[in-house]
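Lay summary

Proteins are chains of building blocks that fold into shapes. Our project writes down both the chain and a compact code for its shape. Here are two examples, one after the other.
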Amino acid sequence: MNISAAILIEKYDLTPHPEGGFYKQTYISNERIPAEALPERFSSSRYFSTAIYFLLEQGNFSAFHRIKSDEVWHFYAGGNLNIYILHHNGNLEVLTLGDEITADISFQLVVPAGCWFASEPVKGVAFSFVGCTVSPGFEFADFELANAMELVREYPAHKAIIERLCR
């Protein structure tokens, strides 16, 4: 059977994500880390870890956003996915998640906490089906969707990619 985006969306009951694409939470730990044991950027306790399935189809993208935790990305099916990371020092890093065994493509990648990032399937790829694991666990209180004008002011050298990958 050929895997398609529609089959994966139905099989895993994926729903639209605010940043773009489709997702479903697949794991949330039973225990929480108390707020006093976390860095100051967290205002309350957080689950030890969370995980989701995430699917992006060609022509769609995950808009620039940031979270307060490291996010580990895992490749599952479909084609390669580009992840664009704006580091605090102003550098733009483009990583490719996928199943090609080359120096520039990996099955697993990490987006550091607090960095702005976006993603999209590589040109010509019908869809990318991936997973994301976050620790301390993801909560929408830690999610910030970028404003293109503000992000361009902060990273003017990357205006074109910011304007293309913001909603």
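And here is the second example, written the same way.
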Amino acid sequence: MTAVGIACVMQTDLALGAIRHLGYPEYLLPLLGVWNLLGVAALLLIGFPRLKEWAYAGFAFELSSAAYSHVVTGGPWPAIAGPIILLVLALASYLLRPENRRLH
């Protein structure tokens, strides 16, 4: 998610191509990038379990929406698989957290 956030903030050719293909306005890239980087920072912070829950939820919303958008616009398989793979990794990270890092 760090790499995705940096690519969005820097508005790389890959990120611009993807957002144009999906039909979203380019001005969303820096916003999405900042939110991604803030989500990563939230996961790396010690403590703050509720903030981590929201970060995981944000990643789930973003990645599932990205996969869906690529499917609907007829994106190529790698464009669809990328968000799905990241979503599976985020879900695994969420589910495999130690007990002391979960909300009770």
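What can we say about the second shape? The chain has one domain: 2-97.
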